[in-house]
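User: quick one
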Amino acid sequence: MQGFFLGLSSGAVCAAYCAPVLIPYLLGEGRSVLQNFSALLQFLMGRLLGYLSFAVFAWGIHTSLPQDIVHRNLLIGAAYVILSGLLIFYSFFKAGRACPSAGDQGIDHRLRESRSSLFLLSMGLATGLNLCPPFLLAVATAAEQASLLQSVLFFLTFFLGTSVFLIPAPFLGLLRGFSPLPVIGKMAAGLIGAYYLFIGATMLAGGFYR
Amino acid sequence: MTKEHPSQGKTVGVRQSPGKSFLLALPMMLLTLMMMSGGKIPADPQRLFVFAVTYLFFNLLFFLMIHTGKTDRYRATAFITYALLFIVSFISHMFEARGSMSLSEEKIILCEVPFCHLVIPMTLIPAALTKTIIFPGMITGGFASIASMFTIWIGASLSLGRGWCSWGCFFGGLDDAFSRILKKPLLRKIDPRWTYLPWAVLLAVVLTAAAFLSPTYCTWLCPFKTVTEFQAVTSFKILVQTIIFVSLFIALVIVLPLLTKRRTQCSLFCPFGAMQGLTNRINVFDVRIDPHICTNCKRCVKACPTLSVTEESVRAGRPLMSCMKCGTCVDVCPSGAAAFHVRGTPVEGNRNIKRLLFLYAAFLFLAIFSGGTIQDGLSRIIRLITTGSMI
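Assistant: Done. Structure below.
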């Protein structure tokens, strides 16, 4: 339960870190609330994957990574660059949207849908690897766990605690009647992508970013 | 009141006789005298001269607005003067206080950065989440405090809505000025989707500000840092930021307004303006286009400097939410279909009374809000002429 409560207590910060990636995507797609919930689940699956891989890592290295500023910057920088790539790609190329004339059952549609899921999973994974302050706390606590299973369970419960704060996001689907929103979402994704690219690149380059 | 026939290619004016115009301008003369002097006429000759010039400047413009029935040209004169003298006044203050326009780390740590209204959208979510204002400014006291700017913003939003962007913003006069230099636009076609960009910028800066607890628009994008204050270039990151905001200033405040004759910074980029559009919904004044009188000449569509009047919006009888109530469409409308309007009243009613009600509110706000800055700017210029230094 410790992980769950840690997630609950710091979830607002986690949501603030995930929102710049998730909200422009949900707005850009202009889908219904139900479809947005499905998108959120895919995003969360990617995030969980990121968390669990970190759980294994944190247990294995016993917190040495978060304390090593060079490696930490490299990891966060890489996560930002990946996120920026995904956001810029999303902004300029209409990802995951079936052609209106293609119908809903065709192979093309299923291919596009699977690409959209992969896209969401990748965005979730990259945000999962993004070392936001609550996540660093969780890494430090997980590293103190006696076994790998305990570490994984800690991160799983931490993930559940933080995910509660993302539940309102799919309700953006209620605004889909406002036709400019998809354009606004895509433009915002591009801008945030450019911002992340600079942060990520300077972190990777090392020393420049203060 | 005189009316000119639309078929003659002229616009319907709401001209008043000089005597009636004087009487209608009298309340403004008294109110501006009271508010600009603070109940005390300056004794120092130079300050008295500056006060008198400012007072006469505003009241002459208001008189002409009523007498000629035209709004935009006189509003723009005051608004542009305000923007230019704000820069003179602000830069002089910065040189007095710091010795340069650049902002040191020390001033940021001491929270001595002047707060401006453009930061407001970014502060709201972090304030709700963390109970802190993510800007290194002073809550009260000092020069341009956070509390005073919030109070002014709330007052302006209630009284003017997005009219703030044409009657109150101390930056808006800059792209307004550049958009008036050429007689005809060299770049006519602007994809209407660009009008969504301010919303995207708003979304991006609000989300990133909440994530990083930093005013990202001020740090990275605000073009007006070029003519006010900026961080001293001490790192690669600040160098990149400087290149970005100077480029945006050149592009959005100078080049594009010149080429398009539109206020591109205000209508295609400013996130505060986008948010301010929402306050148009709760504001008592708006602009309406009477479909029964409209001849569909599209002059308002062509003339609107903020791209807020489209063919669809003309059909709908009102400009878009982004309308800044500058009065351009009202001035160019040959049939008098476009007019200032008070919510809750019929569109067909006496347009002159509604216009006057709006002008009293908007012009008084502009005169009071900018009066002190204009006086300070003029004093600095006089000091420059007489002593060779503005500080």
